């Protein structure tokens, strides 16, 4: 029998690349006999085949990415052909529905938004050829029929797939509401979102009686999801004050001082999962206290990578004489060293067949999975799922399985170290892209803003003349944004360099076709601060991701034109308007 799995295409999480990984992990975990007929997982409609409906129900009882599953009665590539087939062959299906006292029909459409009148039109057309005698009940029907339609592209006029059949069951997405951060007693500013935490558990294959460790547990958000599946959880965190709720509260409009019982364990007690809570330790991830044996079934973690919390290592402890408390002293922890240590730790302490799942922060434009993902000989990578975070940044959920025993000679490695050098990921995340620098310095302003026409300039002198012309007179809207037809305003004159030497080449166009104010401010302000500190060209080249020759040209460019000057808010706003026009 064939079934249709409808996955959630929620743009808030952007988890389309996780569908296949979670599905394969649950099939392996429960040893289910389910075969996928369309392997691409490119759309939220996935056709599977199974001889056992119980296996479909077992999958639905665990999945968080699949919204529901239906038994496919009718399938066609054209809606009119589907109606014709349903009108001719429907005796068995009609007998099945009429055995229930009530029913309802639900219409689902992918790549098209349906109004209520359009949904009712589809339902009426079905009832015209499929007359049902049972009573309609929209609140609590005993039988739910689904009509699922899909277009290959939103621009297409006709449907490319039509599915019709009864509902088998729903996924576990409603469980996420029970663990919502809004109602959770103890949280921090980096507490893992419940949906992502449950997906991590599924991809890792967490099961009943597993021993799970989170070496960067924080407030225990990931461990709480593991305990929901019956796993015994153990956490470690460098800052013991956070584990005991001694840090300031991160909630808005609440007292900064936490309650006396506001700690990691309290969340497990409130969800009646304290029987699965082993303990949390104030433990240094590098110099750990575990005996050198295979202990853990699963290791899950979301390491700090510098956006909200920075990676850090324990340097020493000291005693505060005032209250006689031990306080940690932290030192910087390079991301490349952190991820290599994570793999080495997992290789040593995971049982054979155990899994390691963690997040790896990346930038979309220069990340190459085959070379930039860390490796260890005894760990096999079986899932790599990307979650976009912004136009240029994302993070990958990596899942490893231990396939061979650990040897002391083994050591984790990068084929190409993505976090090489002393550059923090936060600096790379917030720094402007090289292609934006290229567009500004190359005079390709029409790419940044199609509304502004700039003559083609081949030589550096011509580009300098074009730039100077745009600096002298621009069109500025009263709100600070640039539009055509507004009044002209004169900006301060900028000194033209005697020997203009900027020869950047733009790699790609700016996303969305123009420079945003945030990108411009970040670009100019970061580079101005860096140059004001008299950093070497070599350090600037590493920090901003451009070669040293172009970096020197850009430094001269800012020194000559002085585009960003701290001479008052009025001049600064005019310069922002100028750059937005460019």
Report low-confidence residues grouped into runs of 5 or more.
440-464, 466-521, 560-572
Number of strands: 20
The shape, in one word, is: globular
Radius of gyration: 29 Å
Structural class call reads alpha/beta
- In terms of DSSP E residues, the strand content is 15-25%
Percent of residues in helices comes to 25-40%
Alpha carbon gap, first and last residue? 60 Å
* Helical run tally: 20
Largest sheet report: 9 strands, mixed
Oligomer: single chain
What does the average pLDDT come to? 75
Can you tag this structure with a few keywords?
seven-stranded mixed β-sheet; nine-stranded mixed β-sheet; 20 strands; 582 residues; alpha/beta
List the helices and strands and how they pair.
Blueprint (H helix, E strand, L loop, with lengths): L1 E6 L11 H12 L4 E2 L8 E5 L3 H8 L5 E6 L2 E3 L2 H10 L2 H8 L3 E9 L5 H14 L5 E2 L6 E8 L10 E10 L4 H4 L15 H11 L6 E4 L6 H8 L3 E6 L2 H4 L20 H7 L6 E6 L13 E6 L10 E9 L4 E8 L2 H15 E14 L5 H4 L6 E10 L4 E10 L22 H6 L3 H9 L2 H4 L11 H13 E3 L12 E3 L26 H16 L4 H8 L3 H14 L7 H13 L1
Parallel strand pairs: 6-7, 6-8, 10-11, 10-13, 11-12, 13-16
Antiparallel strand pairs: 1-3, 1-4, 2-3, 4-9, 5-9, 8-9, 14-15, 16-18, 17-18, 19-20
């Amino acid at each position: 029998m064939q079934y249709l799995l409808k996955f959630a295409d929620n743009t808030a999480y952007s988890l389309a690349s996780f569908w296949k990984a979670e599905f394969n992990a649950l099939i392996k975990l429960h040893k289910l006999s389910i075969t996928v007929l369309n392997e691409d997982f490119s759309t939220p409609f996935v056709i599977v085949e199974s001889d056992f409906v119980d296996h479909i129900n077992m999958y639905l009882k665990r999945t968080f990415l699949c919204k529901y599953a239906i038994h496919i009665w009718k399938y066609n590539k054209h809606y009119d052909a589907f109606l014709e087939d349903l009108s001719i062959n429907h005796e068995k299906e009609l007998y099945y529905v009429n055995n229930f006292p009530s029913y309802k029909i639900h219409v689902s459409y992918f790549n098209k938004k349906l109004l209520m009148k359009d949904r009712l039109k589809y339902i009426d057309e079905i009832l015209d050829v499929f007359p049902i005698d049972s009573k309609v009940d929209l609140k609590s029907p005993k039988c739910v029929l689904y009509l699922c339609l899909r277009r290959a592209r939103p621009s297409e006029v006709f449907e490319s797939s039509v599915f019709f059949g009864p509902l088998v069951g729903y996924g576990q997405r409603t469980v996420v509401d029970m663990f919502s951060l809004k109602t959770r007693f103890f949280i921090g500013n980096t507490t893992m979102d419940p949906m992502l935490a449950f997906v991590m558990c599924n991809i890792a294959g967490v099961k009943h009686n597993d021993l799970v460790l989170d070496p960067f547990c924080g407030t225990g958000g990931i461990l709480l999801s593991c305990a929901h599946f019956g796993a015994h959880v153990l956490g470690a965190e460098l800052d013991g004050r956070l584990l005991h709720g001694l840090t300031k509260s991160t909630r808005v409009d609440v007292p900064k001082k936490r309650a006396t019982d506001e700690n990691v364990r309290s969340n497990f007690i409130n969800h009646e999962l304290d029987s699965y809570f082993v303990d949390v330790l104030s433990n240094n991830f590098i110099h750990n206290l575990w005996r050198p044996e295979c202990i853990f079934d699963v290791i899950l973690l979301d390491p700090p990578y510098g956006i909200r919390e920075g990676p850090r290592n324990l340097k020493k402890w000291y005693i505060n004489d005032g209250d006689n408390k031990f306080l940690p002293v932290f030192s910087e922890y390079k991301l490349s060293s952190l991820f290599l240590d994570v793999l080495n730790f997992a290789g040593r302490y995971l049982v054979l067949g155990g899994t390691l799942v963690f997040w790896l922060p990346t930038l979309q434009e220069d990340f190459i999975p085959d070379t930039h993902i860390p490796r260890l000989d005894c760990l096999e990578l079986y899932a790599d799922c990307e979650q976009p975070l912004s136009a240029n940044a994302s993070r990958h959920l990596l899942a490893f399985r231990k396939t061979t025993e650990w040897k002391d000679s083994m050591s984790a490695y990068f084929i190409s170290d993505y976090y090489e050098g002393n550059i923090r990921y936060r600096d790379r995340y917030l720094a402007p892209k090289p292609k934006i620098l290229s567009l500004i310095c190359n005079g390709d302003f029409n790419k940044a803003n199609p509304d502004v026409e700039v003559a083609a300039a081949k030589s550096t002198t011509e580009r300098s003349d074009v730039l100077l012309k745009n600096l002298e007179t621009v069109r500025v809207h009263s709100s600070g944004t640039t539009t055509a037809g507004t009044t002209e305003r004169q900006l301060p004159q900028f000194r033209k360099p005697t020997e203009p030497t900027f020869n950047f080449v733009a790699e790609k166009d700016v996303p969305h076709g123009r420079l945003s104010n945030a990108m411009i401010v970040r670009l100019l302000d970061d580079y101005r601060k860096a140059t004001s500190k008299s950093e070497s060209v070599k350090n600037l080249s590493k920090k901003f991701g451009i070669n040293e020759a172009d970096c020197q040209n850009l430094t001269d460019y800012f020194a000559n034109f002085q585009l960003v000057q701290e001479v008052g808010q009025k001049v600064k706003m005019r310069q922002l308007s100028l750059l937005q026009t460019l």
